[in-house]
Amino acid sequence: LSVYCVYVLLLALNGVTEAFVHAVLDARSLALSNLLLMGCTATHVVACMTLVRYGAVGLVTADAANMLLRICASLWYISQKFKAVKGFHIGTLLPSGSTLLLMAGTHAALLGTKHALTTMGWLAPEVGGGLAWKGAAAQVAAAAVALAMVLALIVMRTERATVQAVRALMRTKGPEQEGEGVPQREQNRPPGGKEMQGTSSQAHTQDGLKKQT
Q: Is the dihedral of CA 33, 35, 37, 40 positive or negative?
């Protein structure tokens, strides 16, 4: 399952890169790209025949190798497409060193957790071949904590401006809510409404006196 997770990651990267390449290539370059994909398919068949002795892990590894070859081909096309763009380098599309280090550290921590649970006997199959639920739950919980930490670090590193904007919006939301308690009649009253009402009453009184005179 862990090998398949790596394959899914490569599958997603291949989908994005190939979609871009097929969107910008002309007819001639697209035909060459299809020939290259045929070569990758032939390599995939050979890899499957070689690694089938390792069972499902071998087949998934062959699929991952095929995706890796196709990703490299797409990245080469992308680098050629943007060769004339000043300041562009294919390395800017790849994960940074700190991101790769974070992923490696998370993987090592999860492997250590698995080793510790195995040593404690929590991952040993139960009597009758049942699943070791306690060990499985502990391993899933450790993976969830690791995922939360990775996502938090990524958000704080790449979305710092967005986080600051949200905090500023939450701080300014308080004074705005204080005005919600004002009655609707007070909000709709025009400025100087009381003075205008008094002036109108005085005008009516003066008109009555003139008629009596």
A: negative
Packing angle, helices 56-81 and 2-24, rounded to 10: 30
131 DSSP 8-state letter: -
Written as one letter, the residue type at 143 is A
Q: If you search the block for the tokens 């035909």, which residue do you land on?
A: 31
Tell me what the mean pLDDT of segment 25-52 comes to: 85
Nearby residues of 36 by Cβ (< 8 Å), 6 or more positions away: 73
> What's the N-to-C CA distance of the chain in angstroms?
104
- Dump pLDDT digits (tens) for 178-204: 555 545 444 455 555 444 444 445 555
25 by Cβ neighbours in 10 Å (0-12 / 13-18 / 19+) ranks as middle
Please give the Cα distance from 123 to 170 (Å, whole number): 45
Q: Which two tokens stand for residue 145?
A: 């904590």
User: Which residue matches tokens 């990245």?
Assistant: 75
Q: Work out the number of other CB atoms within 10 angstroms of the CB of residue 13.
A: 18
CA distance 75 to 21: 9
The answer to whether 10 and 65 have CB atoms below 8 angstroms apart is no
Residues in the chain: 213
Calpha distance 44→59 (Å, rounded): 10
- Measuring CA to CA, which residue among 139, 142, 109 is closest to residue 123? 139
The pTM assigned to this predicted structure is: 0.56
14 close to 67: Cβ distance less than 8 angstroms: yes
